[in-house]
């Protein structure tokens, strides 16, 4: 999941003050009666009414704003409430810029929601103390349908107990304009650095910005978010089971291999493959949708936007950031829903989470233009389905999002350093040396081979 660039550490006293401010957003348990016989109609992946149980109100917090994930969340709530008329789910949209501070403060005062959106990977582990492990609460029949649950367990253990029920599967991915490729005479999507450089030359000659960068679409900082690209650079360098090496230091950020790969990435700007204003552009999404730019690196949260505007003229491609064709793709459950540890309605909350894996739940997610995380799921959006086919038909290895499995301090430093590398403001060796220095100054427990 694309991450906030806000600092991760909070002062407890400040959180307590914040908790008082959010106390009015309590979990809706006042005047509601919990019931021991309310669980669980949806757990096996089906759905049936539990209308004979006492009325219950749950509160759900999200930080989605108005993006597709917010639509999917409301779709799920509407579908669930229709089948479970005794359950009311109050959906509260919280500000994204301090969502996790609010959530943590509400957990301290036990005045927050029953269910909360939670980002996966190291974010889950950072906040796990106020989350409820799901095994034994959400039925196994529902959990086993979901993919990538290991990325939300302690130390990312495939046999561990997940703290999050994924909402969707997400891709960091490339999108390209098929008409631009045709006009430029490009008959095959590039699969290596050299093929990408050659395609850029043809696209420039045809009047296009080959690959557009900017912070439009989702403003996670003043500059473009570099971890989409960095994920594919690392896919080109390391198999998925060696990505932990970046966390524990077995692969230094400034190793010769890393410097060489990021130098080839920086050459995109040097060769005119990108817009010149990569550090300041804010309307990059518009440039792609309007046909000025031929390619963009983005994610599934914008797929529906592209297909709505460009119809069948848009397609997905795996960013070819390698000397040889890449055999992996970022295919990862970036966020989902957790049950807060203090909730007085855990059985009812678990039933809602189980509903996500049901056919009705999958339909609600797909209707919002997202990809259900359920094993074997399909999607009605053809470009999203193309992404799924990269794995199911083309045999590509699913990778996590790099920014979810390296330390937050590295992510924050990289948000400043990596865009400057692409823009030519700092050399790859100097920039990656700064990333390695950031890693070296982490506490020893954050440099071990145990994710935390």
From TrEMBL:
Superkingdom, taxonomy of origin: Bacteria
Leader sequence segment: 1-24
Keywords tagged on the record: Signal
Ranges of compositional bias, category Low complexity: 33-50
Keyword set includes Signal: yes
Entries under PROSITE patterns matching the protein: PROKAR_LIPOPROTEIN (PS51257)
Protein name according to UniProt: Carbohydrate ABC transporter substrate-binding protein, CUT1 family
């Amino acid at each position: 999941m694309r991450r906030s660039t806000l600092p991760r550490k909070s002062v407890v006293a400040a959180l307590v003050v914040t908790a008082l401010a959010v106390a009015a957003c309590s979990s809706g348990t006042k005047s509601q009666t919990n019931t021991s016989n309310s669980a669980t109609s949806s757990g096996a992946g089906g759905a049936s009414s539990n209308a004979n149980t006492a009325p219950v109100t749950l509160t759900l917090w999200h930080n989605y704003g108005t993006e597709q994930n917010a639509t999917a969340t409301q779709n799920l709530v509407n579908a669930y409430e229709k089948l479970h008329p005794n359950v009311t789910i109050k959906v509260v949209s919280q500000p994204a810029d301090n969502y996790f501070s609010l959530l943590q403060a509400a957990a301290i005062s036990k005045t927050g929601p029953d269910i909360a959106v939670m980002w996966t990977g190291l974010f889950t582990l950072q906040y796990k103390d106020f989350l409820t492990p799901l095994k034994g609460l959400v039925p196994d029949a529902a959990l086993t349908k979901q993919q990538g649950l290991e990325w939300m367990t302690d130390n990312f253990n495939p046999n561990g107990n997940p703290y999050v029920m994924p909402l969707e599967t997400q891709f960091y991915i490339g999108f390209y304009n098929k008409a631009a490729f045709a006009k430029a005479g490009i008959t095959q999507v590039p699969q290596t650095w050299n093929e990408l450089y050659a395609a850029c030359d043809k696209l420039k000659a045809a009047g296009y910005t080959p690959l557009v960068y900017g912070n439009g679409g989702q403003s996670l900082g003043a500059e473009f978010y570099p971890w989409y690209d960095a994920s594919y650079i690392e896919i080109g360098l390391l198999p998925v089971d060696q990505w932990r090496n970046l966390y524990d230091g077995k692969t230094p950020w400034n190793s010769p291999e890393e410097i060489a790969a990021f130098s080839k990435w920086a050459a995109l700007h040097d060769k005119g493959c990108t817009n010149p204003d990569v550090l300041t552009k804010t309307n990059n999404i518009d440039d792609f949708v309007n046909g000025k730019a031929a390619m963009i690196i983005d994610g599934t949260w914008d797929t529906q936007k592209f297909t709505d505007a460009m119809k069948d003229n848009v397609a997905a491609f795996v960013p070819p950031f390698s000397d040889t064709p890449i055999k992996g793709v970022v295919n990862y459950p970036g966020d989902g829903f957790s049950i807060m540890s203090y909730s007085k309605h855990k059985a009812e909350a678990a039933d809602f989470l189980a509903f996500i894996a049901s056919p009705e739940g999958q339909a609600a997610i797909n209707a919002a233009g997202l990809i259900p995380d359920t094993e074997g799921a399909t999607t009605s959006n053809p470009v999203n389905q193309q992404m799924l086919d990269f794995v199911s038909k083309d045999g590509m290895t699913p990778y996590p999002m790099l920014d979810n499995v390296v330390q937050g301090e590295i992510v924050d430093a990289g948000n400043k350093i990596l865009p400057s590398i692409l823009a030519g403001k700092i050399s790859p060796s100097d920039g990656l040396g700064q990333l390695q220095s950031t890693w070296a100054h982490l506490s020893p427990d954050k440099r071990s081979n145990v994710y935390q």
